[in-house]
Every structure is written in structure tokens, then in C-alpha cells.
């Protein structure tokens, strides 16, 4: 038996469709057009591609898009000054600073400078704290996308054994919090975890977010498990082109899993859809309106 291939692209299109409808209602009934500012420092080719795609999607959903491209040697003070302007701009509801930042800039200081109400990445300590308190509005986009995909397959996650491999602030930790809020039994595993393969084999829901190509092998997967691959590793090919591969050895895992996300076409598209959702949530909150019913 071959696992169901989870279509993240289709799920993202569906979510973006619902967000787009709600944006149109917001403009029509309240005269509010959500706006997203994306800040890119430097000219890393992969980051440039993602940022371009985010800007295109934002506009297609009926939102305003503000594009700030800064040279790789911009000073931290200049970047902080731009954040301060975006914080004060009423047309800007969401601010995303593309990570990673160059070494001479403290990502911590930059994230701390973003108005928590505009922090559509959900990385500000206030939003991270709210997530752990169970009162979050803006939660990190990739984890939110992972949970939506898992619920799409399983319906409820209550009582399921979830294993998250990876403990980053942007994926692993917030993902564990979201799964806990769904009443899953959550384990966070990482590079120092003993008997990692055995831990993974206990998972009804296995999330791989380590950034190591094909680290999770087929025999780490419990038969019938739902596998969500967060890894996006760009592998250079001899012909100068590149190929994206995940953190899961897909060809092996699909023989064992019940359902599995591909790379590309899995979690990646959901990340962008959730960014638009967060921008909508921020704009509605700013206007004193309840959360969208998307
Ligand atoms: N502050 C911040 N927030 C982020 O959310 C953030 C970031 N920084 N830095 C970089 C990573 C990466 N990221 C992706 C989003 C979508 C795809 C995506 O749509 N990928 C497509 C393929 C795209 C391709 O072919 O290159 C897919 O998986 O199907 C990938 C990667 C967001 N990130």
C-alpha cells in the first residue's frame, strides 16, 4: 500500500480562496484593506524567490503589499528605523522580516522591535508567550500550516501521539504548542535525543523539521502514520540546476505511512497561505473585528 499524498498546494489554494473572500468583505463592509510589508535584507536567491512569491500572493488576495529591499550591508539602526516606520503606518497590518538576517544584525533585536500586533510571523516574545498561554492570535505560519494539513487527514488530533523532530523557535517549538492545544500527546525530539528512530516509530503524527535532507528513513515511520515534512533542502545538481528535497526519505516513507506531504508541494505553499491568514487576522483585530471564520 502506498501512502496518501497530502496535497499542500490544493489546501493552500483553498485557504487563500477563503482569505480572499474575507478580504473582499472587509473592504466592502468596513473600508479596511489589509496590508503586508515584507522586508528583505540582501539578495540571497532563494529568499528573493520566496519574497517575490509572497508579494504576488498578497496582491492577488486583494491586500496591499509593501516591498522593502535593503542592501546586505544595511546597518541594524537603519533596519530598526524602517521597522519603527512600519509600526507607525496604519496601512501596514503585517510586518515580515525575511530570515535569516546577515550576521552583523541581531535578529532578536529586530524581532523585538516589531509591534506584536503586526508580527505575522508570530515570533515576537509576546506572541510566543501567548501561544504557550493558549491565548495566541498570531502564530508562526509554517506550524499553523502543518496542523491544518494534519487535521485535514485525521480530523481530530486528540489523543494521538505526535513527535516533532526539531526544536527551532520558528517551527519545532511553536508546532509542539499548537499540537498540544489540539490535545495531541507531544514529544519534541532533536539532535541529542537518544534512540531517535525508536521515538519516531511511536508517532501517529510525525513532523520532520530539522533541515537535514532525507534524515528520517522509512523504517522510522509507524505503519499508517501521518508524516509532515517541513524540510526544504536545496540540492545542487551537476548540471547547475537544483532540486528541493525534504527531511524525510519520501520514497521509503510512502511505503509505510498512511499519508505524507511531498516536497515541494506540501508544507511550503501552506506557509504562504497562513501568512495571508495572519495578515487578515491582524487587520481585523486592528479594526476591532472578531477573528475571520476561515
Ligand atoms: N521571517 C520569515 N518567515 C518565513 O516564513 C520564512 C523566512 N523568514 N525565511 C525563509 C523561510 C522559507 N519559507 C518558505 C515559504 C514558502 C515556500 C514554498 O512555497 N515552497 C514551495 C516551492 C518553492 C520552490 O520551488 O522554491 C513548495 O514547497 O512547494 C518555501 C519556503 C518561509 N520562510
From TrEMBL:
E.C. numbers: 1.5.1.5, 3.5.4.9
Domain Tetrahydrofolate dehydrogenase/cyclohydrolase NAD(P)-binding: 140-285
Residues reported to bind NADP(+): 166-168, 232
Domain Tetrahydrofolate dehydrogenase/cyclohydrolase catalytic as annotated: residue spans: 6-121
Pfam families: THF_DHG_CYH (PF00763), THF_DHG_CYH_C (PF02882)
A GO term, aspect molecular function: methylenetetrahydrofolate dehydrogenase (NADP+) activity
Keyword line: Amino-acid biosynthesis, Histidine biosynthesis, Hydrolase, Methionine biosynthesis, Multifunctional enzyme, NADP, One-carbon metabolism, Oxidoreductase, Purine biosynthesis
Catalytic activity: (6R)-5,10-methenyltetrahydrofolate + H2O = (6R)-10-formyltetrahydrofolate + H(+); (6R)-5,10-methylene-5,6,7,8-tetrahydrofolate + NADP(+) = (6R)-5,10-methenyltetrahydrofolate + NADPH
GO BP annotations listed: L-histidine biosynthetic process; methionine biosynthetic process; purine nucleotide biosynthetic process; tetrahydrofolate interconversion
Superkingdom per UniProt: Bacteria
CDD domains: NAD_bind_m-THF_DH_Cyclohyd
Pathway: One-carbon metabolism; tetrahydrofolate interconversion
NADP found in the keyword field: yes
Keyword Cell wall biogenesis/degradation attached: no
Description of how the protein assembles with itself and partners: Homodimer.
Function, in words: Catalyzes the oxidation of 5,10-methylenetetrahydrofolate to 5,10-methenyltetrahydrofolate and then the hydrolysis of 5,10-methenyltetrahydrofolate to 10-formyltetrahydrofolate.
Protein name (database record): Bifunctional protein FolD
Amino acid at each position: 500500500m502506498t501512502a496518501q499524498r497530502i496535497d499542500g498546494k490544493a489546501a493552500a489554494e483553498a485557504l487563500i480562496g477563503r482569505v480572499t473572500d474575507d478580504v473582499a468583505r472587509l473592504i466592502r463592509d468596513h473600508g479596511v484593506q489589509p496590508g503586508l510589508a515584507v522586508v528583505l535584507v540582501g539578495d540571497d536567491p532563494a529568499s528573493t524567490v520566496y519574497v517575490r512569491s509572497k508579494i504576488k500572493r498578497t496582491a492577488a488576495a486583494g491586500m496591499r503589499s509593501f516591498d522593502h529591499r535593503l542592501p546586505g550591508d544595511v546597518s541594524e539602526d537603519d533596519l530598526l528605523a524602517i521597522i519603527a516606520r512600519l509600526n507607525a503606518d496604519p496601512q501596514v497590518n503585517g510586518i515580515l522580516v525575511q530570515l535569516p538576517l546577515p550576521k552583523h544584525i541581531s535578529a532578536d533585536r529586530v524581532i523585538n522591535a516589531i509591534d506584536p500586533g503586526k508580527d505575522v510571523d508570530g515570533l515576537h516574545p509576546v506572541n510566543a508567550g501567548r501561544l504557550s498561554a493558549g491565548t495566541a492570535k498570531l502564530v508562526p505560519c509554517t506550524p499553523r500550516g502543518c496542523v491544518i494539513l494534519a487535521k485535514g487527514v485525521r480530523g481530530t488530533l486528540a489523543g494521538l501521539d505526535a513527535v516533532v523532530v526539531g526544536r527551532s523557535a520558528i517551527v519545532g517549538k511553536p508546532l509542539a504548542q499548537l499540537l498540544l492545544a489540539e490535545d495531541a500527546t507531544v514529544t519534541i525530539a532533536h539532535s541529542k535525543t537518544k534512540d531517535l528512530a525508536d521515538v519516531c516509530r511511536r508517532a501517529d503524527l510525525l513532523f520532520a523539521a530539522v533541515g537535514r535532507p532525507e534524515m528520517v528513513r522509512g523504517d522510522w515511520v509507524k505503519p499508517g502514520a501521518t508524516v509532515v515534512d517541513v524540510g526544504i533542502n536545496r540540492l545542487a545538481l551537476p548540471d547547475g540546476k537544483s532540486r528541493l528535497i525534504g527531511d524525510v526519505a519520501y520514497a521509503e516513507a510512502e511505503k509505510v505511512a498512511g499519508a505524507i506531504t511531498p516536497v515541494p508541494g506540501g508544507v511550503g505553499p501552506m506557509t504562504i497561505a497562513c501568512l495571508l491568514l495572519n495578515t487578515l487576522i491582524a487587520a481585523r483585530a486592528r479594526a476591532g473585528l472578531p477573528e475571520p471564520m476561515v
